[in-house]
User: Fold this.
Amino acid sequence: MNATARAPIMAGQFYEGTGAALAHQVERCFLDPRGPGELPTRHRSGTRPLRAAIVPHAGYEFSGPIAAHAYSLVAEERPPESVLILGVDHYGLGTGAALSDRDWLTPLGPLSVDHDLVRALTRAPVTVDEAAHVREHSIEVQLPFLEYVVPHPRFVALQVRFGPFDYLRDVARVVREAVRDRDVLLLASTDFSHYLPAKTAERLDGMAIEAILAGDARRLYDTVADHDISMCGVAPTTVLLAALEDEHLRPRLLRWGHSGEVHPTREVVGYASLALEASTSAASPFK
Assistant:
């Protein structure tokens, strides 16, 4: 075990705390009626049209089956050489755009950091800041899914704090230049509306999702601000869209859902998985 690796802080809380139990939990997410309904294929294609995905980060009981839709696509395609996960800054620790340059651990085992990609990303306003990652869960909860679908994945964690649009565009510029000519899959970690009636959450989330389906970073940022949508990961999602805006990708919604589908309550949290692909049809069920 690497003594300098970041230890999991959500094991036993957001997801199971032992390797065997966690592997079964991830599989249940794939098999869940809210999920793909089957385990990921082990017969990969030789291509990878999937360039990026947007995935939720709540406890697996609530958002795991929604996230599984995106990870099923990852499992079907040629594995990427590296994965860049753009996470949320829920706690305001550290710098605004904070990289980690160490391995991370989950109950399924260690994940190796891509040091070369970290060096390429270390350009103002992006810096290495391990302290920013100490309490944050939005990147960590993606890792067991990633370990399940990608053999021996290399990854980089980049936590993005909310800020002015121009600042997020500066972060996106660094990301765009760093991933150019590299085989990198990008993931943005976000939940959508928080603690609203399900119909209200669906309406507001639909507005944000429409902006994502348009591939429009500025529209997403403004829509969330103008309609006071409690999308916690608007910053990393804005960065992802802005970083890839020149690649002519087709976003599509894989699944939207909410926590009330698991435990009926008056107020719910919304979740969605979306894919950005090199060639596919894009349609929105919110229209």
User: Anything to note?
Assistant: The chain has one domain: 19-277.
